[in-house]
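hey can u check if this looks right to u? its 189 residues, i copy pasted from the old doc so theres a chance i mangled smth
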Amino acid sequence: MKIEDTAEQDEFDSSDWYAFHGGFITAVAEESGSEPASYVGDSSDPDNVDVYTNEQKVRKAMRARVLNPEWLDSMEDHGYKGAGDLSSTVDVVLGWDATTGVVSDGLWEAVTEQYAFDEERREWLRDVNPWALDSITDTLLEAVERGLWDADDETAERLRDLNLQVEGDLESKAGDSPAATPEVSSDDD
């Protein structure tokens, strides 16, 4: 059981949430050999205290923020940092699924559509922080490779192609940078 007493934060604000609660669930499952019952007590509104299963609470937070188009669009106001926050959010989705298995294939598909395949968001990410887009596609591919998400072949291939394109963009940027090709001098000069 985990108690939440604020609406100011949710399960996707940092890795602490899944590292603690998800890690504890994983440890109990490993030791006992079966998945434990896991709950989140929400007392953020003292007049409306509620208890959710961990799965319900994570999915509720995903729909309320992670997949909320208004929140996603608002990240653009924060430029490079907003893009980095989107990347961190996808990392936390992976953490929750890896520790508790609560992210369904449908939720992975929705994250992929919103974070990688949405053309306007993808182009914004490529412009303001291509490293964030690279990390997002890496993380989505990791979910597939680890068997956390049973993505269809077409989606996985599309992600691989996007990942390679972004890596190519980053390599090109590095090649254009004066720091990327330092001048070599000799002690004989």
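The chain has one domain: 2-176.
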